[in-house]
Amino acid sequence: VANEGGKHWTVNEVRALIRIWSDKNIQQQLEGTVRNKRIFEQVAARLQKFGIDRDWKQCRTKYKNLKHEYKSVKSAQESGSTSKSMKFFNELDAILGHCTMEQASKSDNDGSERRPEWTEAKSEKDSIG
Fold first, then answer.
1. pTM, full prediction
2. With 50 as the cut, is the pLDDT of residue 62 above it?
């Protein structure tokens, strides 16, 4: 059983987490609250449907870490530094970059379910760096 630090998140697990996080409903809930245990319980339950066994604390910790890393890379880029980068920057930029969420949802056309790209990438290495 994973402890607080837990086992490393695989690339597929992080992609699944970001996919759920990119849900407009989840984003709105997260923006409006600090006490977000209930939201992360929903996130964990949705990950469970993909066979990903993470509890709400692990989801919240990963979310916070990704958000923090994203912000530090973003501010480094804005100050002209290109030395900082991260693996899921583009995905997070679509969520956090507030390149107006309307644009992001329009490119999602009518919201019809398409097979998420991370479900096909089963052969990818298990753990991130």
1. 0.69
2. yes
